[in-house]
Model the fold of this input.
Amino acid sequence: MRDRSASTFDELVVLGAAGLDEARCGALAAAGPRDWRDGGDALVEAVAGSRLVGALVTALERGLVVLGDSQLQQLHAAHVTALSSCLRLEERLCDVAETLAAGGIGDLRVVKGPAICHLDEDDPSARTFGDLDLLVRGEDLDRAVAVLGEAGAVRPYAERRAGFDGRFAKSVTLTYPDGIEIDLHRTICDGVHAIRLPVDRLWQSPVRFELAGVGFAAMDPTARVLHAAYHAVLGSPVPAPMSRRDLVGYLVRTDHDVAPVVAEAERWGGVAVLHEAVAIVRVLPGAGLRGWAAWADSTEVTPTELAIVAAQRRDGSSYGRSRLRAVAEMDRWRDRYDYARGVLVPSRRHLADRGLNRWSMLGQLVRPARAARPDPKGPAPRRRRST
Amino acid sequence: MSEVVPSGEEVIVRVADALIRRSGGTVLILRRRAGEMVRLEGPAAAVWDELVEPASIDDLVEQAGAAVPSGAADVVGAAVDALEAKGLVARERSPER
Done:
């Protein structure tokens, strides 16, 4: 099941992606529905653990997959459980928005889970999520953390340095006593690309939606496409199945006109990120991107940019060496100093909260560099294939 | 459907503070601060789906007619009563035009 699950998941992130049109579904169905009854019990269990339960339900409803009766029941139970959790999260999102508004922070953007569900899915039940993410203006971030702290949310780690979060952090995670997590984002990525990305752009042209009578705003469609790309490419060394599934949906829906997204990526200094995102989707069976493939084939990405993406990807959300590359992107010496100090010399309280001290932190910074160094006796590091 | 409801007629409306999801024939509804999650299936779920726009009982019975050839009025009436008892719908007068 282990080997099979990898290829099955590859298929599933395409079959269950949002926004597949009739023609694409027809092409995917041409070979007949995938019969996954053999090993289906383990598949449903794995899918539930990867938050792809909605994707599998979507693929079944499109007639692209076949499961046995008991597996369908198992899937239905898992889907109901996941959806119940989403409703609890959305209820908390409404509470959080009202709490922040009462604290003077009324301008927010919902990012990821609920925004994707209600703006980018044919049916919000097709996409489940496990936490909440809100974009808050940098100047409001400390106050937002304090306001939600008064409402019972706890941040596990103290700030790296006073004022660091509002100027440099990607996000601050808060946890409620019932286990619900909310990430308060200043921006959508870390490191070099966080410095390049014009954060004000994330606030322009908001798209409105409502939950239980409460009004919310999300980023505009182009920013949402790029956010999915940045999250899949830079968020972790290996993109989660859900991240890939979101990315497939966004790229499929924009495949007929890639220019606006490409132009935005250029303004964000993120062409290499977008290029890598397209590469992630192109290798998936049946994704069938034409517009994006043509763009990727005609776009050169420099080795320096590839190295930046690779280093950032390797570090994921941790503060590894790739974060220091961001210093070179900063115009002001004051910013360089404050950022580097926050990364290299966080407060003792921050370190203690994370079970670290100065020496173990130093090791954390050095380890990725050693891991990345090629073995002189071994094969040359894999070069990016020409696309 | 709301266009065909005569003004002043009683209509059934969903409450505004409901969060909703669907899995197959199951509808999950959570009203804010209600605490309890409601799970609807069968006629109650079907009536809830029809109420995406406010509708009169007659409209609902007409919609149900194809699926429930005999006794549709009783089935719909019981479903609406059940939804009302759970606090998910309310009876209102459609606006005067």
